[in-house]
Input
Amino acid sequence: MADDLLRKTEAETAAGGRGRAGPRIGLALGAGAARGWAHIGALRELKAMGLVPDVVVGSSIGALVGGCFAAGRLDELESFARSLNRRRVFGLLDFSFSGAGLIGGDRLRLRLQESIGATRIEDLPMRFAGVATELETGHEVWLRRGSLIDAMRASYALPGVFEPVRLGRRWLIDGAVVNPVPVSVARALGAERVVALSIAVDGTGRGATRHDGLETDPADDEAPPAARRASGLLLRRGRTGANAPGLASVMVNAFNITQDRLMRSRLAGDPPDVLINLKVGRIGVFEFDRAEELIALGREAVRRARDEIAECFDLARAAEG
Output
């Protein structure tokens, strides 16, 4: 029974559509931890433009926001996100030093249950899939049946931070490990045109190769900008100096670099019809208390892409504001 939750081959998908004229529309929501609150604003703006999706898929926090959207619970999620401050965020983190992650995740699961309850994916009014990664094999797993909460939890189980989620005989972790912006999943579930929402961080320089040498003069102890920036609640100073990155900072930034490279590769191989980069500046991956800023940035990103979206989907230009 539990194995029914897990995608094995793309051939399992059936043709979609609910009878609406025009091409079936898919939304692919990318990973980004706290920065993914920007998806809320982007979805609001897309709806204001008249873009109604048939398929919604997501990785990591993209699965969380996309799942709530598909279940008609985006209002509740937005209210929850806007209510967070640093103290409340910390109160939701049930730290575990004996398991496979720093955070057990039970408190977050209970909050999701309060809002979503026993909602099952197959009962949603649109097609939905959350992308996860099988821990032992590295297989990409599409969660498109069964408990919506379980699918979202498995998809955002960031390695080393959240404990893996067990579904059936498999242990699952964050979908961003294999497919950070799952355009391919949206197409396989029947979407004929796809809008991808990707989290874009300023000034990272990821994907580039530098050939200049680095000085090893011990007198030059100035840390690079990336090491000087705090990345949120869990990022602490290291032992080697006031500006040195802590354990969580090293772990998360290494994961983000890998994710960024993988995202570029996968989008090059299967590009969306419209790619919207949600530019979130230098907001940290654990700064969940900055929802208001992020939601506004998501709205602004869609507004910048308004003409491209309208042309691709033959939409009447929505009024500004």
Q: What stands out?
A: The first strand starts at residue 25 and ends at 29. The chain is about 35% helix and 15% strand.
